[in-house]
Design a protein that fits this description.
This protein is an all-alpha fold. It is 79% helix and 0% strand. The longest helix is centred in the first third of the chain and has 22 residues.
C-alpha cells in the first residue's frame, strides 16, 4: 500500500502485524517488518521517522543476531542521511554504504551488495570520482546474468552508462 502511494493506510497494517508478532512473543523477522515500515515512511516522505525506524531495525539486527536484512537497512540509512542532510552527510553516507557492502559480501547477498554499491557509486559519481564509482559497481553488476529489467539493475546500469566516455569501455 505504501509503495502505491497509500502509506497512511499501509503503516497501521505494518504496526498491527508487528503487534501480533510481539503478542505471540515471536521476534523473528522483526527487522523485516521494521524495514518495510521504514520504506513506508520514506514513501510518505517522512524521512526522519523512516531513519529512526531504520536505526531501530539496525539495533535489533545487532541485538538479535538476525542479520539477513542488516546490509539493506544500513544502505537505506545512508540514502536517507543524504536526503535529510545533503552534502553534510556525505562522509556518514559513504561509511554506511561501505559497511553495507561488507555486510552483503559476508552473507554472499549479491542483491544487497548491488544496492549498496549503487548508492556508493552514485555518491562518488556526484563528487566527480568516476573511476572509483565504476570500480565499486561494475564487478557486482557484472556478476548478474539476467534480470536486467529489474529496477536495481537498471539503476546500476544507468550509473555505469553515465561514466565519462574514456571510462565507459572499462565497465561495459
Amino acid at each position: 500500500m505504501a509503495q502505491e502511494g497509500r502509506a497512511p493506510d499501509g503503516i497501521p497494517l505494518i504496526d498491527k502485524s508487528m503487534k501480533i508478532f510481539a503478542d505471540m512473543n515471536f521476534r523473528y523477522f522483526r527487522s523485516v517488518h521494521l524495514g518495510m515500515k521504514a520504506r513506508a515512511y520514506e514513501a510518505a516522505r517522512d524521512f526522519e521517522k523512516a531513519l529512526a525506524i531504520l536505526a531501530e531495525g539496525i539495533a535489533f539486527a545487532h541485538e538479535s543476531d538476525e542479520k539477513v536484512l542488516l546490509s539493506d537497512l544500513v544502505r537505506a540509512s545512508g540514502d536517507l542521511h543524504l536526503i535529510l542532510a545533503g552534502p553534510q552527510a556525505t562522509d556518514l553516507a559513504e561509511n554506511l554504504f561501505v559497511e553495507a557492502i561488507a555486510l552483503a559480501k559476508a552473507q554472499a547477498s549479491k542483491l544487497h551488495e548491488l544496492r549498496a554499491a549503487t548508492g556508493l557509486a552514485r555518491l562518488w559519481q556526484g563528487q566527480g570520482k568516476h573511476a572509483v564509482a565504476g570500480d565499486v559497481l561494475a564487478p557486482v553488476y557484472a556478476w548478474f546474468k539476467d534480470g536486467f529489467d529489474s529496477p536495481d539493475l537498471r539503476q546500476a546500469k544507468s550509473i555505469l552508462d553515465a561514466q565519462p566516455n574514456n571510462l565507459r569501455h572499462v565497465y561495459a
